[in-house]
Amino acid sequence: MGTVMRFEVGMELPPVSKTLAQAQITLFEASGAHQGPSIFTDPETAEKTLGMGRPVASGRMTLSFAVETLRRFFGERIYNHTGTADLRFIRPTRAGDTVTVRGKVASITPEANGSRIAVELTVQNGNGETTAVGGGSAIVPAGLLPPAE
Amino acid sequence: MTHTERTMLDYDKLEIGEPLPSYEYLLTHEMAERYREGVQDPEARFPTIAVKADVGAYHRKYEDAGSVNARCAYYCYNPPVPGKKIRVTAWIADKYVRREKPYIVTEAISVDEDGRLIDRVITHELKRPQEVGKKWGR
Questions:
Q1: Chain B contact for A84, CB < 8 A?
Q2: Residue B20 and residue B58 in contact, taking contact as beta carbons nearer than 8 Å
Q3: What's the ipTM?
Q4: Looking at the predicted structure, is the pLDDT value of residue A141 above 90?
């Protein structure tokens, strides 16, 4: 039996911040076997496709940061098997940006063998501008929750 | 990775529920390590996020003028094991027009060679990528 986990609506998640360099954006793309110039790696392609003079980071990088934020909060044994993340991308993120994922518990819903803990997520850049919003969740087993939950 | 017999996207003809080509790839240790370095997270266990499985299936069937990820949902079931083959099954989940801009929603599930369900991804892509430059500038 693991340690009892306590959740309440409004509880804040520890934020996760990342500063992006083009080398990391390029590594991310290479890790997915995406070869060749793209809007993520090549200024000319970014200009031609997006009308932007610089590459952008994939929204899935921000999604990965959200997944990390949630995994750290719920623990990998829970999150890696029941976790979700869902983000709407509002503003592009590019090399040089520092993005921070923040979250707070939005709801706790009983399910068959535990409770689904839903979290609201906001991602901001270093200027305080929101780059993505959304949420995530995980199902915490009943055995890890206090009896009242 | 070659894409044969691709056709130019005709948005009006695209059918919701339309299957996209299934495909298989080997998730290598190198891919997993690059992913962890890219996202600066040594504990990251889902390098399949960077594979962009649903969009990869879409591009095996269609060519278009490019797109921008407007929304992405991800469901974790079991972390993939590097060294195993992953099979992707994908389809067109939806399409819609919002503020006169066309979007396509693709969905994919990934299962490894042992039959373990790895993840599910749903992506809303704006199929008019120049809107990004118009809105956010250079």
A1: yes
A2: yes
A3: 0.94
A4: yes
